[in-house]
Amino acid sequence: MTKQAAMTPDQFKEWMAAMGYRQSDAAEALGLSLDTIKSISSGRRVAGLTVALSCNALYHRLEPWGHKDGAANTTETSSR
User: Fold this and answer.
1) Residue 39 and residue 63: Cα distance in Å, rounded?
2) Torsion of CA 64, 70, 74, 77, to 10 degrees
3) pLDDT, tens digit, for every residue of 2-49?
4) Does residue 54 or residue 72 have the better pLDDT?
5) Better pLDDT: 24 or 78
6) pTM strictly above 0.90
7) Above 50 in pLDDT, residue 80?
8) What is the widest separation between alpha-carbon atoms in the chain?
9) Bridge partners, 7 (sequence order)
10) How far apart are CA 39 and CA 68, in angstroms?
11) How many CA atoms lie within 13 A of 46 on its CB side?
12) With the C-alpha atoms ordered 15, 18, 22, 28, is the resulting torsion angle positive or negative?
């Protein structure tokens, strides 16, 4: 089974440009190695859903789950 890309190499490069990131900046922001970023940018490696969602979260300047304000900080459970 082949893993489906959630983000094409062109979309990934577009995200880096929108963020003003070089490949090394993207690696640091996403917690990935520079080699992984280069592989995603060139299409040798798939940018899966986790990378795509992380890019979106960084673009929208979202805090990690459980930080700052919001329901994620509570210990109560939600009935969603």
Assistant:
1) 27
2) -100
3) 567 799 999 999 999 999 999 999 999 999 999 999 999 999 999 999
4) 54
5) 24
6) no
7) no
8) 44
9) 47
10) 34
11) 8
12) negative
- The whole-angstrom separation of Cα 57 and Cα 31 is 13
Residue located via tokens 């979260």: 57
C-beta contacts of 14-21 below 8 A and 24+ residues apart: 15/55, 15/59, 16/41, 18/59, 19/58, 19/59
Q: Exposure string (b/e) for 18-45, b if CB count within 10 Å is 16 or more?
A: eeebebeebbeebebeeebbebbbeeeb
Pair of tokens at residue 6? 């959630």
b vs e for 49-74, b when ≥16 Cβ sit within 10 Å of the residue's Cβ? eebbebbeeeeeeeeeeeeeeeeeee
